[in-house]
Amino acid sequence: MVNRWRDGRRLPGGDARLSITYITLRLPSPLTPAYNPPFLDLSSTEGPVKRIKAIYPGSFDPPTNGHLDLIERGSKIFDELVVAILRNPEKDPLFSVADRRKMLEAMTSGLDNVSVDTFDGLTVDYALRVEARAILRGIRAISDYEYELQMALMNRKLQPGLETVFMMPAEKYSYLSSRLVREVAQLGGSIECLVPDLVEQKVREKIDVAHKFTNREQSAGKTPSEGKSKSRKKKL
Ligand SMILES: Nc1ncnc2c1ncn2[C@@H]1O[C@H](COP(=O)(O)OP(=O)(O)OP(=O)(O)O)[C@@H](O)[C@H]1O
Ligand SMILES: [Mg+2]
Question: What CATH number was assigned to the domain covering residues 53-173?
Fold first, then answer.
């Protein structure tokens, strides 16, 4: 089909389809209303602003890169995150609660909405005391899931208003636990890449002191160097 003026002259630009394309592409912008998608205005000042505070409880003995990974993820979804070290008198820890607190504070110093605290007793009671709405926990593998599910359901029974939020670490940390770090370090293996540098240094210091103590006991009556070399051989 050919487009023509009223007097029969041909319009430049070929057939109707092409003319329509030509016109459509050059429609003046006011004819196509701007697309305004609805959006959530989090900066709204109307009404109370809901800030979600969460606690991340654990023993952190010592804190690992897996813990840090979870703290970083948690700090992105919660307005406030409190890393809460459980003071558990039954456990025989490698580090005192004060030492663990110092390490965690140093590790999280760059995260403005993260703080470190200690607590004892029920986690739900502590959460209520600090007005937290959620408990952050990590799931590494199926083995964690069973225990964590049990804990989460018991905590829900004790305090139905409190939610447990599970997060997964980066794959490279999914096998990592404080217990493994303690064991590897105690047997002389490298814990580099498993914990932050400052924690690695503290663990080494701690284990060296423990070895010296053991060696002294084992090699009573012998020089410290004699005792040391002997116990090293035993470990290898
Ligand atoms: N590598 C990790 N990735 C994800 N979550 C973790 C990791 N390590 C610990 N968590 C989670 O952090 C929380 C506190 O753990 P906790 O302090 O008991 O550490 P842990 O490594 O399990 O220590 P331990 O080996 O002494 O039991 C738990 O929810 C645990 O599942
Ligand atoms: Mg554990």
Answer: 3.40.50.620
